[in-house]
Amino acid sequence: MVIQRFNICLVRLDPTTRAETAKTRPCVVVSPDELNHAVATVIIAPMTTVGRGWPTRVPVRFQGKDGEIALDQIRAVDKVRLVKRLGKLEAAIAEAVLDTLGRNVCTVKKLIQRTTASFNARLRHAMRQAGLKEVRCKFDFEGTKLITS
């Protein structure tokens, strides 16, 4: 089966743990085609008929049922879990998925930036309080290293 972004596939999600979306259900492939053709996994977002109205959910009507694409339950699955292709998202819904993913990534990025700035200020204050030589220091955005100068 050729897998493309925004295909809707029936996916076996079990076994799952605790709050993960379970069962065999329709899911939207959200990974880019470059990945879909190159690796053994795809990134999917489960579809559900339970409406939550959360900002991470995109309303959708599929096979005569109203529901949501649960972007808060996004995950990578091996392609062997894909049972069959059921269809493809309409272009407007696909755009809404991308918009929602982008909006939530930006929210997380802003939160990380604010947290990092707060950490940097506390680090400089602690260094002054400890009587350490004033240095320009910054914890980088990615949170992987301490930069001093």
Topology diagram in text:
Layout: E1 7-12, E2 24-29, H1 33-38, E3 41-48, E4 57-62, E5 65-70, E6 75-78, E7 82-88, H2 91-129, E8 137-139, E9 146-148
Antiparallel strand pairs: 1-2, 1-7, 2-3, 3-5, 3-6, 4-5, 8-9
Distance between the termini: 54 Å
Measured on Cα atoms, how large is the radius of gyration? 21 Å
**Number of beta strands:** 9
Element order, helices and strands?
Answer: EEHEEEEEHEE
Taking the sheet with the most strands, its summary is: 7 strands, antiparallel
3D shape: elongated
Q: Helix/strand/pairing class, anyone?
A: alpha+beta
Low-confidence sequence ranges: none
How large a portion of the residues is in β-strands, by DSSP E? 25-35%
Description:
The structure is a single chain. The protein has 149 residues and is α+β, with helices and mostly antiparallel strands. Helices cover 30% and strands 33% of the residues. It contains 2 helices and 9 strands, in the order E-E-H-E-E-E-E-E-H-E-E. The chain has helices at 33-38, 91-129, and strands spanning 7-12, 24-29, 41-48, 57-62, 65-70, 75-78, 82-88, 137-139, 146-148. The strands form 2 sheets. Strands 1, 2, 3, 4, 5, 6 and 7 form a 7-stranded antiparallel sheet that branches. The longest helix is centred in the last third of the chain and has 39 residues, at 91-129. The protein is elongated, with a radius of gyration of 21 Å.
